[in-house]
Write a structure and sequence with these properties.
With about 475 residues, the chain is α+β, with helices and mostly antiparallel strands. It has 16 helices and 17 strands.
Amino acid sequence: MDVKEKLSEVVGAGAFFDDPAVLQAYAADFSYMPYGAPNYVVKPKNSGEVSGVIKFCNENSIPVVPCSSKVHFYGATIPKEGGVIMDMSRMDQVLEIDPDNRRVRFEAGVTWDQLTRQLKKEGYRVIMPLTPPAERSVLTDFLEREEPTNQVYDYGEPLAAMEVVWPTGEIFRMGSASVNGYPDSPSKGGNPSGPGLDFYRFFQCAQGTMGVVTWTNLKMESIPKMDKILFAPISDLTYATEFLYRILPRRIGQEVLILNNVDLAAILAEDWPNDFEKLKSTLPPWTLILVLSGLLRRPEEKIAYEENFLAQVIRNEFADLRLAENLPGFPGLRNKVLPILRSPWPADVPHWKNRVKGACQTLSFHTRPVKAKHFVARVEEIAIRHNYPIRDIGVYIQPIEHNRACRPEFSFFYDPENANEKNAVRALYKEAATALINEGAVFTRPYGDLAPIVYERATSYATHLRRLKKIFDPNNIMNPGNLCF
């Protein structure tokens, strides 16, 4: 039996594709990584079909590259060695909304637009990263460790129990989803670590090299009864960091983030490019955004307590901080920003990272908040050497777990049709990543050019990772060419 005949048998003739035009659509994403077309595309509709495809490919040493949505940024879904693209977009069911355990169970192809709409009808939401594209897979974002804008510790690890298909084709459930009778059993899958084995970190940032996640449980939260969004213009990152050190460990605020004028202008601009250029030149160098929220119980009292605490801290310790419901010079901003933070980016509008020049390469990592200002200066210094204007660099700083850590993210915008610009950004990205890791930056998402930079400095870790890969994927069929494999 040939490949086309067998794969068509597993997923159905209508879900198998080998037309060159279709294959070409999977050969690139929004990154600068080189093109690489698959030989075939399949669109399974359930875990059994995923298992059937992988079993056949494993027996015949055919590479398999999982792909869960239309929007990818890091090159992880571009085939390095041809093979089969496994497009999970047909697996798009929200399987269960469980208010008692505050969790939602859904398949890999469920998008941000779909999940947000369904949960809103029930009065719930998922704590989301900053402006995820509407057509992007929710599961993908959390497997890729996208940081939520909500810095409260409780929401920092939203993934719970899940189902995966190993590279041998075996279907496996982890955490409390592994009990007999799930999902109808009393455990309901709310606990990611028991009573079954907890493998979920094994798949985070693995880029489909360890297997295919078919569905997951994700924590959800009630939509707040009340919100108050506050802004502060910032010129000194150190001053803002000290303020956050003072308030966030006291559990003040829900969404908290800092954006520089470039990123905030790109997010807010409506009449493009006129609004962008005007906002970029008039916004403060940095803007602190802080959302106070009252959930179901005594929302007025909660917000009043937080406002009172903030007023005391500012009056006694940070008199130069101007924290208010509107940013000076930008009336009505509060009515615009909160919906942006709570909704996916609209599907009919180019994502703000791609609106500036057509494409964007982001560099993100974890560090201590007190080092963020230093790393900003280092990236600017390197950008100058590559003739990249520092006034055009977007910067987003996300506090994590009550400011225990933070994630700076640098956006380098470029024209994807200009080979010189693309090559310059790639060289800038690689030099900046090397310099930052040498100075203590922690990179937890080893994609593309970043992978060798990270693994060359962690040889023992890479050696053990290769041993694990050999155990779970003995024929190295799952997305070969990524990580250190």
